[in-house]
Amino acid sequence: MFYDIISTLNPELLIYDGFQPWAASHASSLNIPSVHLITTGAVTMSHFLHLFHVDEIKCDEFRFLPIHCHDNHEMRKFVEMCSSANEEEVIDIGVLCFRSLHLSKSFILINTCIEIEDKYIKYLSLLTKKEVIPIGPLIRETMDDDEHEEIIEWLQKKEESSCVLASFGSEYYMSNKEIEEIARGLELSNVNFIWSLKFPTGVNTSKEEAMPRGYLERMKHKGLVVKGWVPQAKILSNKRICGFLSHCGWNSVLESLASGVPIIALPIHLDQPINARLMEEIGVGVEVVKGENGEIKGEELAKALRKVVMVGKKSGEALETSMNSKAKELSERIKLRGDKVIDGAVDKLLQLCKGKN
């Protein structure tokens, strides 16, 4: 079907990602130039290529970032999942991914930026033997949203740099025990917070039922618990926000750093543990220490929050930490660069289109 679609449309150019690794082959057979857009970080893609032992890569070890699978529950689960798969299937996945990158015409695009991953972008270019062009952070523009106006109104009543946003993506739902420990950690930390609490489709649990008994009343002046989606990028760009308690999905990482907000990392699966380690490495995040089996502990969460949000003992005001300063500096560097890199990428894409004609 895909072949029929592009043969009918005959586009000047095709941009595809890792979820359509077969797209480049179809485009090539029709003489349509195609470019791979990597939607994860460069460190994740580099590590992925090593994990699957792709023969084309002649390098014995993963460089730079220490990925300690033995002391991280989420990384252990990911490696065990890969190890339990049929060996031929694992190799096929790795080869398919590498071939997809190899078929990208002349260069590869990636949703990251040199301010965050300069050495990993260069390393990925070395591995793939192609120019890797960072075009990120690609972030959806914030829009006025009357539906969530009460959240912004609540936030506006707080002091600058005094609040944390807690949100864990849309693909994982916390267990009752995890919700209880996160609630306890937020309370112990004494920070102001907005918490986006999500449930699976069809589950009609209210936030009152999900929270520990008396929690919402007890925390009514410190925290706002919202059931469902919140305008994350808009909240992160607000000056009252000084930390992001996040699962460390790549898009969430980019939104946070573009807004100059450090990350309290609570990774769950896939690339998230690697992203969390990257945030620690560049000094704009701290990972919450979990139990041996990946269990969340309220005390450890509170410790991590206090490293990012330093609360004054007398007045309860939030004081700026080194992580806040580094995150703001990183954001300013991204803004100063502007659209130069994207403009350069567009020029290269236009050249590919001209080459087709």
From TrEMBL:
One of its GO terms (biological process) is glycoside biosynthetic process. The keyword Glycosyltransferase applies. Keywords: Glycosyltransferase, Transferase. PROSITE patterns: UDPGT (PS00375). One of its GO terms (molecular function) is UDP-glycosyltransferase activity. Pfam families: UDPGT. InterPro entries: UDP_glucos_trans, UDP_glycos_trans_CS. Belongs to the UDP-glycosyltransferase family. This is Uncharacterized protein. The lineage of its organism: Eukaryota, Viridiplantae, Streptophyta, Embryophyta, Tracheophyta.
